Amino acid sequence: MKTPVLIVNLKQYDQSLGRNSIKFAEIAKKMSDKHNVSVVIAPPAPMIDDTSSICLTMSQHIDPYEPGAHTGSLLAKHVKELGCIGTIINHSEKRISYENIEKCVELCKKHRLISVVCAKDNKEAGELAALKPDFIAVEPPELIGGDICVTTKPEVIVESVKAVSDVSPQTKVLCGAGVKHRDDVEKAIELGSQGILVASGVVKADDIENAMEDLVMGML
């Protein structure tokens, strides 16, 4: 997966449940082919198998387990076998302990999944960099789902990039929270981000294709 990258977290919105995830996958594939960029979707877990046959797909979460008696868990080995290229870990709506983040990152390495670990600020980003994930996505929780973009606090991105690179130079930084427009993406990349993690700005858009393409154009 090349950078910059656009990851669209479909969460569990009505707009993305069931077969609705397919249209997001088809648009992501169209944007990837049209602009030669990486566009990834993270659908609700039941749709991973379907979307991964269409476009680059990540799971929204994994649990820190190998196969066994773990009722209701989502396993790294399973999502890999269903076609995922990676997973989001420790999203602000699915926070887990540092110990379990470490286990999940190790499972990703073992099963050849890209790890996208979420951090709430630059301090946490630096701490999580010690685990050497592939990506750290910095998303201030108070801005998620709102109309104020993280790029209005440029120090969050700049300081996160520095904090991560000081500990794990190979780990790339993404940013998210409030990202909705091309200008937001351009600014984020200018500040050192290697891509964007977005949700409502695309999923709840009146015109999904235009919303996604607008963000993609900001990466070019």
Can you give keywords for this protein?
single chain, 220 residues, alpha/beta, globular
Would you spell out the secondary-structure blueprint of this structure?
Layout: E1 5-9, H1 20-35, E2 38-42, H2 48-52, E3 56-59, H3 76-81, E4 86-89, H4 98-110, E5 114-119, H5 122-129, E6 135-138, H6 154-167, E7 172-176, H7 182-190, E8 195-198, H8 200-203, H9 208-219
Helix pairs in contact: 1-9, 5-6, 7-9
Description of the structure:
By secondary structure, the protein is of the alpha/beta class. Helices cover 40% and strands 17% of the residues. The chain is built from nine helices and eight strands. Strands 1-2-3-4-5-6-7-8 form an eight-stranded parallel beta barrel, surrounded by six helices. Strand 3 (56-59), helix 3 and strand 4 (86-89) form a beta-alpha-beta unit. The longest helix has 16 residues, at 20-35. The radius of gyration is 16 Å and the shape is globular. It starts with a strand and ends with a helix. The model has no long low-confidence stretch (mean pLDDT 92).
What is the number of beta strands?
Answer: 8
Report on the biggest sheet: 8 strands, parallel, barrel
End-to-end separation: 16 Å
- The helix-and-strand class reads alpha/beta
Low-confidence residue ranges: none
Helicity level, as a percent range?
A: 25-40%
User: What is the overall silhouette?
Assistant: globular
Oligomer: single chain
Strands of the largest sheet, in order across it? 1-2-3-4-5-6-7-8
